[in-house]
Amino acid sequence: MKSCRIHVMGASGAGVTSLGRALAGALAIPHHDTDDYFWLPTEPPYRDKRDVAERLKLMQDVFLPRAAWVLSGSLNGWGDVLIPNFDAVVFLTTPRDMRLQRLRAREATRFGADAVAPGGWRHAETEEFIEWASGYEDGNVSRNQAKHQAWLAQLPCPVLRMDGSRPLPELVAEVRAVIGDLA
Fold it and tell me: Closest by alpha carbon to 69, among 56, 59, 80, 57?
């Protein structure tokens, strides 16, 4: 197999992880998510960040040297050293309302509807996360559209810009068609 290393990125709730998993499955290659390297395993999750050097070493040990993989998530501000590994980058944009709806549904699935509802043990954290995610398009947060656009502009590999509101099978088919010569 030729090299087929694809990075899928975009705002929280854009469908990045879903597309990454589906694409990896369609190509029969491993899928990895930056959250698994960014965050230390805690219960509940997403509380403690892993040091940047440790994240990068773990990624190097687990998958980076392999010929084929899909990496979903954001490397914004810490993963520029990975750029030479990418054969293609997929950038998903999804309307804010749809993203926030997806994030609320994901939080309810992940932690339980009662946990994220008013009075629930995860309610305040969920609302803070939704508020943070809602600032993506306006540039009001550290991980934002302007920073992503600037990062994409410096990439030496092909960048596929896609609408994350489209059905997942269509997105997978389009990516496969464009990167067909890689796999």
Answer: 59
